């Protein structure tokens, strides 16, 4: 295959995607490391103050924020792919549907074999909805996105109010502990037991979170990303430090306040009542997009208007260009470390060690991505997905730079 020269990329988008990989890794690692993750009960094996502090920090900074960033970038990249198809004279709809089909197949395999909390299947299904809405005007897309985010938050707030009117129920702590311990035993027992346990995890609660929390919020961020490219707003804002600073002052306080409430309540040593948990989730769903947009503004400001921005971009961009490969690699490492595929350490690693391991893995991914993308046109999984999408083998190696 002869290398081909690809159109100029939007490097800031790649850098944002590379940054988002860190947040996705930290949150997903918590699910790999402990079967108590998401059950509303702290793992009794790690109840020291430092364990509580790490869980609080992860909830504050990472949880419910970074999948929104990935979703925003998915919508933005969708618009870029539409532009690319228009330039080449290709029919965009069939090509994008093949891409979604490939993403769906990857997601199903990922969910069953590596990680029950897979997001790729959700993206593939929501991508079909985005395709139907691709001709929306930017203003209409923004209105729909805000309405969708507001509706999800309001529904959880209404649920919290209704729950507060019902008689209090005894929380089945013994049942929860037994469920978590049984799941840990299954993940440690053998490869087939781990696969079966992922199926149970998906049936018991993962689908509920995806359908009633992540999916509608992700679709809203798809629409915001689509509008951000169509209107040219993100490109203009990235070149104007004053505008980025206004976004920081506007978004970070709102987002941080909601994140502080969410982290404090959700990681409390005393379990809150169900209606309080639902109310806090409603607040978080309303405020997390502000923190996500604050992260975007902060990183764009650092990349383009601060000393060292070029160096930071040089490390983040390659990882972002092969984000799908890196996402799947993170799950593979998690499965090898925490399940019977390898070390079977689920429930045996304290939160601080998990967090430090995430930092080490992310640093390794940045280095490996930089080396890979210096020689290759795409990440390995991106290359396969592109071949499936285009129905031909794309370039494997990067095109040599022309002599100066």
Mean pLDDT: 92
Structural class, by secondary structure, is mainly alpha
Number of strands: 0
Q: What's the shape?
A: globular
- Helix share, percent: over 70%
What Rg, in angstroms, do the CA atoms define? Answer: 21 Å
The major beta sheet can be summarized as:
none
Contiguous low-pLDDT stretches (5 residues minimum) are 1-8
In terms of DSSP E residues, the strand content is under 5%
SSE order, as H and E? HHHHHHHHHHHHHHH
| Number of helical regions | 15
The structural domain count equals 1
Characteristic key phrases:
disordered N terminus, 404 residues
Describe the 3D structure.
The structure is a single chain. With 404 residues, this protein is mostly helical. It has one domain (11-390). Helix content is 76%, strand content 0%. Helix 3 (66-88) crosses helix 8 and helix 12 crosses helix 14.
What would you say about this model in short?
The protein is an all-alpha fold and 404 residues long.
List the helices and strands and how they pair.
Elements: H1 11-33, H2 49-61, H3 66-88, H4 92-113, H5 120-132, H6 138-165, H7 173-189, H8 191-230, H9 233-238, H10 241-266, H11 274-305, H12 309-321, H13 323-338, H14 351-375, H15 380-390
């Amino acid at each position: 295959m002869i290398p081909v020269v690809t159109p100029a990329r939007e490097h800031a988008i790649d850098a944002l995607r590379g940054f988002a990989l860190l947040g996705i890794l930290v949150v997903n690692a918590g699910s790999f490391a402990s079967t108590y993750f998401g059950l509303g009960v702290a793992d009794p094996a790690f109840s020291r103050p430092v364990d509580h502090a790490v869980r609080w920090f992860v909830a504050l900074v990472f949880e419910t924020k970074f999948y929104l960033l990935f979703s925003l970038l998915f919508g933005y990249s969708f618009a870029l792919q539409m532009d690319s198809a228009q330039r080449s004279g290709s029919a965009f709809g069939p090509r994008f549907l093949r891409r979604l089909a490939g993403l769906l197949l990857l997601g199903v395999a990922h969910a069953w074999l590596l990680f029950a909390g897979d997001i790729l299947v959700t993206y593939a299904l929501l991508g079909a909805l985005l395709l139907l809405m691709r001709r929306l005007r930017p203003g209409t897309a923004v209105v729909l996105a805000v309405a969708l985010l507001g509706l999800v938050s309001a529904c959880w707030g209404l649920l919290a109010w209704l729950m507060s009117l019902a008689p209090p129920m005894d929380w089945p702590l013994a049942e929860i502990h037994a469920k978590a311990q049984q799941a840990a035993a299954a993940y440690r027992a053998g490869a087939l037991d781990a696969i079966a346990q992922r199926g149970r995890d998906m049936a018991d609660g993962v689908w509920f979170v995806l359908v009633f929390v992540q999916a509608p919020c992700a679709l809203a961020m798809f629409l915001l990303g689509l509008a951000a490219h169509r209107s040219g707003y993100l490109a203009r804002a990235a070149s104007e430090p004053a505008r980025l600073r206004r976004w920081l002052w506007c978004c970070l306080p709102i987002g941080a306040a909601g994140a502080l409430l969410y982290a404090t309540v959700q990681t409390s040593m005393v379990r809150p009542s169900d209606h309080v948990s639902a109310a806090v989730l409603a607040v978080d769903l309303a405020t997390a997009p502000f923190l996500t947009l604050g992260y975007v503004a902060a990183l764009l400001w650092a990349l383009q208007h601060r000393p060292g921005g070029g160096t930071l971009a040089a490390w983040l961009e390659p990882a972002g260009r092969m984000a799908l490969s890196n996402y799947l690699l993170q799950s593979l490492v998690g499965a090898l470390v925490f399940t019977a595929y390898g070390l079977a350490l689920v429930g045996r690693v304290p939160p601080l060690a998990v967090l430090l391991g995430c930092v080490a893995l992310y640093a390794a991914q940045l280095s490996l991505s930089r080396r890979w993308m210096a020689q290759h046109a795409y990440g390995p999984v991106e290359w396969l997905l592109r071949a499936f999408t285009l129905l031909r083998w794309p370039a494997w190696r990067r095109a040599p730079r022309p002599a100066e």
